[in-house]
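Re: the 475-residue chain
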Amino acid sequence: MKKLTSTAGNIIGDNQNSLSAGKRGPVLMQDYYLIEKLAHQNRERIPERVVHAKGTAAHGKLTITHDITEFSKADLFSYIGKETPVFLRFSTVAGEKGAADAERDVRGFAIKFYTQEGNWDLVGNNTPVFFISDPYKFPDFIHTQKRDPKTNMRWSTGMWDFWSQNPESLHQTTILFSDRGLPTNLRHINGYGSHTYSFINKKNERFWVKFHFKTQQGIETMTNEEAEKVVGKDRESSQRDLYEAILNKDFPRWDMHVQIMTEDQACTHEDNPFDLTKVWSHHDYPLIKVGVLELNRNPENYFNEVEQSAFSPSNTVRGIGLSPDKMLQARAFSYPDAHRYRVGTHYESLPINRPLNEVNTYHMDGAMNYKDIKEVEGVNYEPNTFDGPKEDEAFREPALDMEGKVDRYDKTKNNDYFKQPRALFNLMSASQKEQLFSNIAAAMQGVPQYIIDKQLALYTQVSKEYANGVKGALS
């Protein structure tokens, strides 16, 4: 029989009765295991994520099926058949940790690739674009997705007030309120890196890249009415579906593709290729097949693996880098900063976040610093003369030409935020358009008329049919 112990390994003789001063007397402070149990219980919950709080995840692998080494020297792409372990966390963006899965929301699609040269994190969504393109607006936008600070209820007025003053959100909101905004589960959605990233090949040439994961299960969606019935029966519908599918060895798979743009093409592209609110034309930049992503193992402990998992676009590997995408640049700071606050200073030492290769840093002390540091005793600085770890110039990226004056540039000037939503709207069938109108009208219930009018004015610039359809659904 296994013996119950304290966290220090002390065997516990009685786990049923507190140590007290007499049969009816008060408990004693010297009952260290009572104190340990209560103290640990007080700390069982770490702060939930500010966004993407409700999530589920699974382990799996990426198998390379096509050669893209002409674009990237990343180890995980090095040969056909190469397999890389992955951990994929799905989430909803706006809902809190206890929110229902079957709510209209963007789904997070965050992947940790455990490569031989460190962890690569691809932090994306099930949409190829986002609501905003400047991180200055991010805290304000997220506030509108949360609760009214006065009533503590969900806040349609703040949401639409923000969107009606930011036409760059039109593309994402059109997707959100289309049929794609309410997937039946997580196996039947696509995933996107959304941002523009960079590839660097063995010749030290840079390419700009967008990542796509196309579900092999097909896209499946629900109407608002269907979702209401699901929520009434099961608030964990998506989590249950994914868990049971993997349990039954019905492993979900996605085809991984990339779009590639050269630096010269980026210089002459009609739109800013680093604008997170816009997509690249598939005609001009066709999808290139990379491999197959498969999820095949459920977590053993939800808290240890899912809650404490931490993803950041700052985790890049040789051959894969960032871009001038303003939102990506800000996320490279804000994500690891959030993890240090939420989980702890050395959060990447946890098993779920730990890379496969050896870690050598000069980071000192701080919460959760339990790992064995492979260094000469007493050396906690660099450069040093004691054979401590040093940089490797082979991992440097090529220089990126930049020019222009430092300023706060108004992105709305000479920027067409209506063309791509218009193209998306025109691709919709009549029934999809009707769903779009109905879903927007439902989400606008209780919103002041002057805010609705501002939003309708934006829809008119996309398409008169779009604006009239929403107006008709509101009447």
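The chain has a mean pLDDT of 92.
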